[in-house]
């Protein structure tokens, strides 16, 4: 009687399959985490752009409401203008020029409140109003985001 040699049985194959599955799952979870982080970041950037658009139309609407001063160019403001004093418009009636100053001050204050390091300019040329808003969207890096809105206003 001849004995047949035993076939060698594989040992540890199940453990290797489990380890490969763990590596695949780990890499997938890291990818999902990165996807979530980017999603939150892009959502915040979109929110800031929406706020900038809202604030640009806010100052344009204020100019439409005070046509005399808008035509006179009183609403023109640049980034170096830090005049944010109060006017009589806070306590009662005021002139159209004081209202323009009040509107600009309120707008600049809203920019600083709603956008990180927010600032803006308003320039008028005839019936064309150009509103430029900038803010820091870098989250620690040295970069700013600027949006420019040009609106034809019938004054």
Automatic annotation (TrEMBL):
Q: Which domain of life is it from?
A: Bacteria
Domain Type IV pilin Tt1218-like: from-to ranges: 34-104
* Swiss-Prot/TrEMBL keywords: Membrane, Transmembrane, Transmembrane helix
* Short name of one Pfam family: Tt1218-like
Q: Which residues cross the membrane?
A: 12-35
State what protein this is by name. Answer: Type IV pilus modification protein PilV
